Here is the input.
Amino acid sequence: IRFSESAVVAPYEGGRGLMFRFVNAQPAELSDVQVRVSVALVEEVNGNRQRTFYPLALERNSVDLFTLHLTVVHPITADSPLSGATPESLRAAQAELLILINAHEETFSTRVTARASYYWDEIRWDAKFASVFATSTDGVVAIDVERLDRLDRLEPGTTSVPSASESPESVGT
Here is the structure.
């Protein structure tokens, strides 16, 4: 499994979402893919700095059959541990995104486990992932693994500033 070299905070359903991509780099198919993501933040608790781990709710945390690529999305809502996050706040908290992927590899019937992490300075703001699809000269659409890391830049402030959907007043609306 190959991961994108950075994660992004991109526009998502009228707000923001924390996203990263991964692709199956081997020819074998993977099934029963399970994804778990947490964020570790250094916080002040009772006068002491400590590292606290928060699980992140994902748009989709499992895929039955995985042959191409997947963009994993954590919607940043008022209930998210990342609600109100900015590049500066993640830097101050020494944020680290921790990823664990488990899957079943079909050819040899083995379990595949992949781990990755993104530190606060590997998270891109005011950007979104570019398309990974390429069309051949004969019209066949395929994934171009070389495009896994490509980003499209957005206007400054598009995602580096919290959205209104992250305010406590938006819970339940």
